[in-house]
From TrEMBL:
This is NAD-dependent epimerase/dehydratase family protein. It comes from Falsiroseomonas tokyonensis. Pathway: Bacterial outer membrane biogenesis; LPS O-antigen biosynthesis. Belongs to the NAD(P)-dependent epimerase/dehydratase family. Pfam families: Epimerase. InterPro entries: Epimerase_deHydtase. Residues 11-249 form the NAD-dependent epimerase/dehydratase domain. PANTHER family: DTDP-D-GLUCOSE 4,6-DEHYDRATASE-RELATED (PTHR43000).
Amino acid sequence: MSAIALQGSRIMVVGGASLVGSATVEALLARGAAQVVIYDNLSFDGEANIAHLKDDPRVRILAGDVLKLHQLLPATEGLDGIVHLAAFMTLNFDRDPWGGIDVNIRGLQNVLEACRANRVRKLVFASSNAVYGYGPGVKGDLVETTPFHAAGAPPAAILYGASKIMGEQLCRDAHRRHGLDYVVLRYSTVYGERQHYRAANALYIVETHDAIKRGERPKVIGDGSETKHFVYVGDLARANCMALEAPATDIALNASGPAPVATLELVRLVAELAGRPDLAPELVPPDPNKVRLTSGGAFAIVHAAAKEAIGWEPQVDMREGLRRLLAWRDGAG
Ligand SMILES: NC(=O)c1ccc[n+]([C@@H]2O[C@H](COP(=O)([O-])OP(=O)(O)OC[C@H]3O[C@@H](n4cnc5c(N)ncnc54)[C@H](O)[C@@H]3O)[C@@H](O)[C@H]2O)c1
């Protein structure tokens, strides 16, 4: 069981130019890491996410691809731990399922092989609440033993969830075969500074904010009672660090925010924080041409096991997290 003292450590963040990655690099440095390697092929235009880190002497940026083992092997020499984030999510899977299967499954397999070859002590793998699936079967409390629901959900969402299930099992397999210590964190929908447009649920926040800035009423799909469960990016950066630091291994843990939120409530909150509570949400039917992540009603992603296993719980509620995100989008954050 590897507990990594981050003070003086060497950690690589694979997919480090991402929303979660850029925050994780900051958190690792704040906890005393001696070197943080950002390994990313920058295929999602992440340069701006890491521009503020590139002159830090403790940060090394490698423009590498997870599909190229010959690049990963030298890059992973002498590391204490890896946080693996590089992935396609549902919207990218919808555009390019081949790419999603390659990056999410073969890419992780390459990282696990590099860990074995270079005796990296611990891996944190970013999984997702997508492992519970989508559609009418998803409702109530989602705990780590909740099964996968595929019926009635778009293929891209199920392909994404299935790729994370494959990833989790590849980690378990590497633990059994080679003794690699790992923690899987099943993030719920992430939001925060450096937010992108790649996550279907986070579009409720960024598209609402964009509409309000144009002086338009924001749109809510359906009657707005459907819940979403978000987690603030800084809370996840802390979770990634704590998963490396804790002795826990061979385990999958939910990492979600303090509480779920109904979409209507979320859109109203964004309008209020953006100073336009007068712009009442407009309820619209779903657009059949767009991928939507639906559920069978109210659900919550329970994060009690993470507290028990690695001592983590979320600290930032939606109001505060949204305030920080909107400030960043307005250029003041
Ligand atoms: N954002 C969310 O709402 C959310 C929710 C649950 C789980 N997750 C998981 O968390 C992780 C991080 O999410 P995010 O939103 O911060 O990611 P992101 O979309 O911002 O970034 C992914 C990164 O992976 C990199 N990448 C893609 N293909 C690569 C390749 N072949 N080689 C090297 N790098 C490559 C991209 O350049 C990008 O920087 C992902 O694994 C994602 O599945 C995210």
